[in-house]
Prior knowledge:
Blueprint (H helix, E strand, L loop, with lengths): L3 H9 L4 E4 L6 H8 L5 H4 L10 H9 L8 E7 L5 E11 L4 E8 L8 H15 L5 E7 L3 H9 L3 E12 L2 E11 H6 L1
Parallel strand pairs: 4-5
Antiparallel strand pairs: 1-2, 2-3, 3-4, 5-7, 6-7
Helix pairs in contact: 2-4
Amino acid sequence: MTDARAYGPQVLTGDRVRLRQLEDDELKLVERWWNDPSVLPLQTSGLPPRPAGGWAEQLKLWHANTDLSSVGFAVAAREDDLLLGTAALHSMDVLGQAATFGIMLGPPAQGRGLGEEATRLMVDYGFRARPLHRIELRVWSYNERARTVYERAGFREEGRRREVVFLDGAWHDEIVMGLLRSEWAAR
C-alpha cells in the first residue's frame, strides 16, 4: 500500500473532477437538474411533473452516508470545486458484495468527458474503499452517450429488460451492465 495520507485524495480525485460531500446549499441546484426536461428522460421513465422541494429531501437522504447500504458524492470540478452533478453506489449487498451505480451530471457538465472520469472514480472507490466484488447499473437503450461512457469505464452488457420504458411514442429496453473486481483489476 502507498502512503496512507495519499490514499483518500488518490481515490477521490481525478484529473478534472473530484468526489466530495454534497452540501445542503447545493441540493436545490441538483433538484433543478433532476427536473430539467433534457435530463429527466435519462434518469427516470416518463416526464412526470414534480413539486419543488421533494427531490431535495430525497437527495439529502441518498447522500447522507449514514448507513452501509449506500454512499453518495457530489461530483465537483477539481480546479474550482464547482458542482457538476452527483454519483452514488446504492443498494449495497453485504453478502453478495455488490452495489448499483448511478450518476447524474447537470446540463453544463454534459458532453465534456467529465462523466467518464467521475464513473471511473466511483468504480475505483467501490473496489478500493469498499469490499465490493461487483458493480452494476441500469441504463435506457436510447441513452447511447451514457452507454459509451460505461463501456469505456469497463462495464459490460449483461442483459436487457425488453421494452420497459415508453418515450417519444415508442418502447425501449433497459440494459443491465456490470463490472467485476477482477475485470477492474486487469485494466
